[in-house]
Amino acid sequence: MTKIDKDLIPVQALLIPKPILSIGKVLNWISPFLASRFGARLFLTPFKYERPERERIMATESRKEKVKIKKINREVIVYNYGNSDKKILLVHGWSGSGTQLSKIADQLLQKGFSTISFDAPAHGEAPGKRSNMPHFIETIHQLEKTHGPFYSAIGHSLGGMSLLRATKLGLEIKKLVIIGTANSVTKITEEFVRNLQLSQKTGRLMKRYLDERYGEDLDNYSGGISAEAVKIPTLVVHDKNDVDVQYTEAIEINEKLIEGKLLLTKKLGHRKILGDQEVIGKIIDFIIE
Q1: For residues 189 and 185, what is the distance between their CA atoms, to the nearest angstrom?
Q2: How, if at all, do strands 74-81 and 114-119 pair?
């Protein structure tokens, strides 16, 4: 399969092993209830992959440290890249790592910024098997206290949704950039069960179970709901050919922002957009303007 072909396949469909898909199908046939519990466990399990060559410079030249996030009692790996006091916080997406936004970080260094990023719990080199969005958010808040202050923040996918929520809850930054970020948690769960080849009934049961487990409707974490309380200038970047998150969700988020700016691209998908030099240039222009 060529790289172009892979860009047309949702990342979950690429990373979930075929035996796992087979087990899910059998459980879905036997009992949607059992399949929903199986799906929920997978939903909270990021899949790790070998670090791409394009990220190795950032990985080797960063000062790495293991940091315990006290509120959740989990460890993350923090990447300190560059030496400037003008710091940008970078937040990766689900199943990503702290070097996922390396091409953006390289350009920021050339403009006099340094970056702080992290492997969220159970991601990259961080220990653990399962994670969730609250883990991302608590990590953001602690790092603001210990490694900040941050001039601005950039997040991809779930990282963008986490930053919207964290900003709503008090993260102090001057500008925010979100890339390929979803608006609705319900839509995320629906897309997940579709990629897992489970029924929508199983998806509804899974969402209900997760709500009960965390004691609230997880749609409270949706991008648009958080965006309503975000008062700083925010750049919403999304590709029209993103098969992981539909670009209409970016439009929905932007409509909720007080100072939102929408940048839509074509033929870059959910992942290639992070390395596109034209997009990176527009992100940096937005941050420094």
Answers
A1: 6
A2: antiparallel
Half-sphere exposure of 11 (CA within 13 A, CB side): 19
Domains recognised in the chain with CATH numbers = 52-184+221-288 (3.40.50.1820)
Task: Give CA–CA dist 179/156, Å, rounded.
Answer: 5
Of 278, 289, 244, nearest to 103 (Cα)? 278
Looking at the whole model, is its pTM more than 0.85? yes
Q: What is the largest CA-CA distance in the chain?
A: 58
- Among 78, 259, 271, CA closest to 176: 259
What type of residue sits at position 285?
Answer: D
d(CA 130, CA 122) in angstroms, rounded, equals 6
Q: Over 248-277, what HEC string results?
A: HHHHHHHHHCCCEEEEEECCCCCCHHHHCH
Q: What letter does residue 46 receive in the DSSP assignment? A: P
Rounded to whole angstroms, how far apart are CA atoms 268 and 91?
Answer: 20
Indicate the residue type of 192: F
- 203 near 193, Cβ under 8 Å? yes
CA–CA separation, 118 vs 75, rounded Å? 10
Write out the chain's pLDDT in tens, 289 residues.
445 456 656 665 556 778 878 888 898 888 999 999 999 999 999 988 888 999 999 999 999 999 999 999 999 999 999 999 999 999 999 999 999 999 999 999 999 999 999 999 999 999 999 999 999 999 999 999 999 999 999 999 999 999 999 999 999 999 999 999 999 999 899 888 888 888 989 999 999 999 999 999 999 999 999 999 999 999 999 999 999 999 999 999 999 999 999 999 999 999 999 999 999 999 999 999 8
